[in-house]
């Protein structure tokens, strides 16, 4: 069973990971560069980055050498932070109608708690590090 993540949320995560991989350069990354390297429509990515900026996760610089960068260290931004901005954080459980459904309801809550824990403890820096391609020398 796969975790369901919206396309918008996945694009947001890819964009933030791309910004994290360039964080130490301290230069804004052009939207076009992120869009082309990840196959994200540029206008859609712009809307996503505006939402992330509104939440204080990224900053923008205007002009010909402008673009976006992370607002703080990627080790301080969790995957959960990004997903909450894009998809919200309200995952209300259904109230069980029958006694047998209580068991399932408790299981769903445990699974959701595990997911939230993993998302909140996975930093963007970790994902950026894992996404680096190794330099192979033969």
What does this structure look like?
By secondary structure, this protein is mainly α. 54% of the residues lie in helices and 6% in strands. The protein contains 6 helices and 2 strands, in the order H-H-H-E-E-H-H-H. It has a two-stranded antiparallel ribbon with strand order 1-2. Strand 1 (58-61) and strand 2 form a beta hairpin. Helix 1 crosses helix 3, helix 1 (7-21) packs antiparallel against helix 4 and helix 1 (7-21) packs across helix 6. The radius of gyration is 18 Å and the shape is elongated. The mean pLDDT is 89.
Task: List the SSEs and their pairings.
Blueprint lengths: L6 H15 L9 H8 L3 H13 L3 E4 L5 E4 L8 H9 L11 H22 L3 H8 L7
Antiparallel strand pairs: 1-2
Helix pairs in contact: 1-3, 1-4, 1-6
Q: Write down the Rg.
A: 18 Å
Number of strands: 2
Helical coverage, percent range: 40-55%
- Class from secondary-structure proportions: mainly alpha
**Contiguous uncertain segments of 5+ residues:** none
Shape category:
elongated
Q: Spell out the helices and strands N to C.
A: HHHEEHHH
Helix count equals 6
Largest sheet, in brief, is: 2 strands, antiparallel
Gap between N and C termini:
39 Å
């Amino acid at each position: 069973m796969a975790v369901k993540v919206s396309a918008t949320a996945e694009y947001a995560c890819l964009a933030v990971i791309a910004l994290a991989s360039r964080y130490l350069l301290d230069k804004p990354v052009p939207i076009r560069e992120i869009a082309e390297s990840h196959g994200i429509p540029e206008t859609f990515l712009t809307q996503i980055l505006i939402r992330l900026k509104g939440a204080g996760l990224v900053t923008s610089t205007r002009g010909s050498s402008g673009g976006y960068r992370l607002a703080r260290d990627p080790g301080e931004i969790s995957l959960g932070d990004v997903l909450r901005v894009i998809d919200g954080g309200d995952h209300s459980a259904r109230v069980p109608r029958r006694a047998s459904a209580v068991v399932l309801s408790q299981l769903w809550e445990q699974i959701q708690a595990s997911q939230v824990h993993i998302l909140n403890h996975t930093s963007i820096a970790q994902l950026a590090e894992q996404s680096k391609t190794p330099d192979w020398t033969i």
